[in-house]
Amino acid sequence: MKDTFKTSLIYIALLSSVSAQAFAQSEGTKKRADSPFSVELSVGAEYDDNISVNEIDSSTGADDFSAVIDADLEYETELGEDTELNVSYSFSQSLHDEFTAFDIQSHFASVGLSHDFGEFDFGGAYRFIYTRLGGAGFLQMQQFSPYASRFFGKKVFVRADYTYTDKDFENRVDRDSTIHAGGADVYFFVDGVNTYFVVGYKYEDEDATDPEFDFQSHNIKARISKRFPMGKRKAKLKLGWRYESRDYASITPSIGVIRDDSRHRFQAELEIPVTDHVYTAVEYEYSDFTSNLASADYTQNLAAARLGVRF
Asked: Which superfamily does 2-29+37-310 belong to?
């Protein structure tokens, strides 16, 4: 198993090297006209000190390394005056060294339409998410989300949305659910897109097939993004915090009381440009989940390094 994992990492490293060289050699070529298409590819490695699946309250308490592959494709065009269409698809795959049953493959497709009414923008999006766990079907979600957004002056931007989600688990019918969620994010631009803060709040009401998994939650987030010069280009640093408080509606049979969860997540990411198209990134995330259900009460450290290209 370890030999297979090492072979995978070697292949990923070679692929990354070839991609980086190809884009570096093209830096001197004449740039093409702007295209409605954009593509981003990245490969790397990740260390997880507690292999877990949050969606089903499963944690092993054991650590492992994994190779990670991500691809994002996006198409954006104008359908008319002040109306935009956005179509995107994302793919991700993790390949663990030992815990292959926790390999996750996800497919994310979305279609969005928005219109600028002058004082505010209004739009909506449909999203489809399909996830495989350990090579088998795991979770399918469909979402519909209308939103409205507006700038207040040049420094403040507000976006409010509502999201309806339909979740279907493979062979876990008791966890199938529908979710109604609403919230808003406020962006504060200190120096345009070079420095800005984001704070947000979201309320969720999840109704599952088994009342044991029904809950309402309050979600708060805060994030800062900072671009700073590094050579001829700009590096980007992101720091974020998320908090979720869950209030379950029914008694959890395994513990004989109503479940009570709170979750903190701290995230940090540094992206360093190599060329105009190639970048490297290092990421770290710490999660602290507190619950009176033992399987949902744990901490987790994730660290990753990636090499990517975008064009």
From this structure: monomeric porin ompg (2.40.160.40)
